[in-house]
TrEMBL record:
Cited InterPro entries: TSP_type-3_rpt
Name recorded for this polypeptide: Heat shock protein beta
Highest taxon listed in the record's lineage: Bacteria
One Gene Ontology term of the molecular function aspect: calcium ion binding
Biased composition (Polar residues): 144-156
Annotated region (Disordered), positions in chain: 1-33, 131-166
Length: 166
């Protein structure tokens, strides 16, 4: 199979990719590409509308997806992504474009690896930078603290994540 970095694209499917019938209906609804380093990418049309809407990435070669990206509104852009950084099958980080403007505006993270999000960042003014943070400091699944950047201040460089590049 060809390296995805060297693959050229014809009609949305990389040359050399293996077409796959994920739902077993007899027609291909996705494809699989494996890089020479073992990283595998699956791109799937989960709702059978002819458009690929889900990307699964196995970054460590264990045949389990470590990252998932989903186009929820069929605009051709990923609207939500989840990433399992430590391989425990729980998402450690997730981000989403909740208002459909093409900019990630909400992100959550499980910083202590207990399977529950304990910090959330929200971009309330669509500038691509978080300006509100919520934390669950006692691990009960409820947000305990809300931190808001003061009005008129620049949050970039202050520890707030740049959600536009998430």
């Amino acid at each position: 199979m060809s390296d995805v970095d060297d693959a050229s694209y014809d009609g949305g499917t990389p040359d050399g990719a293996e077409q796959v019938d994920y739902d077993g209906d007899g027609s291909a609804d996705g494809y699989l590409v494996t890089n020479s380093d073992g990283t595998a990418y699956e791109v799937v049309d989960t709702n059978n509308d002819g458009a690929y809407d889900t990307v699964l990435v196995d970054t460590d070669g264990d045949n389990d997806a470590d990252a998932v990206g989903v186009d929820t509104n069929n605009d051709g852009r990923v609207d939500a992504v989840a990433y399992d950084a430590d391989g425990d099958s729980d998402a450690d980080y997730a981000a989403a474009d909740t208002d459909g403007d093409g900019i990630i505006d909400t992100a959550v993270a499980d910083t202590n690896n207990d399977g529950v999000a304990d910090v959330a960042y929200v971009d309330t003014n669509a500038d691509g930078t978080a300006d509100v943070a919520y934390t669950d400091s006692d691990g009960d699944g409820q947000w305990d603290t809300e931190t808001t950047a003061p009005s008129g201040t620049e949050t970039a460089g202050t520890g707030a994540p740049d959600l536009a590049s998430a």
